[in-house]
Amino acid sequence: MSELKYYVRHQQNYLRDKLLLICKDEATKDFFERRIPGSRFERLTRDQAEHVSRIGMHGKIVTFGYTYKLTEEEMNQINTLDFDHTASIIAEGNARLYKEAIEKGLE
Length: 107
What we know:
This protein has helices at 26-35, 46-55, 72-77, 83-103; strands at residues 5-10, 18-23, 40-44, 63-64. The chain is of the alpha+beta class.
């Protein structure tokens, strides 16, 4: 498996102005960047992403983003105590979302 990529999405116009995006490749991140105008994606290391997922950022909770393409079984496996497993699940869900968007011509 390729190395996962970690980002914090900053978007001042959303209630949750920060969220953690985990993906397998730059193309997936680029897709989200194009589809969410006004967003800025800050690259993180794996350790920084784990810290943000557990502790937050600037006093705010930072949630895992874009989990709605995960199965119920996968959702039940999300656990910040096993960050690497959770990150791989989130990245897989984001890959599915990106693939579906390409198939629908939304790219």
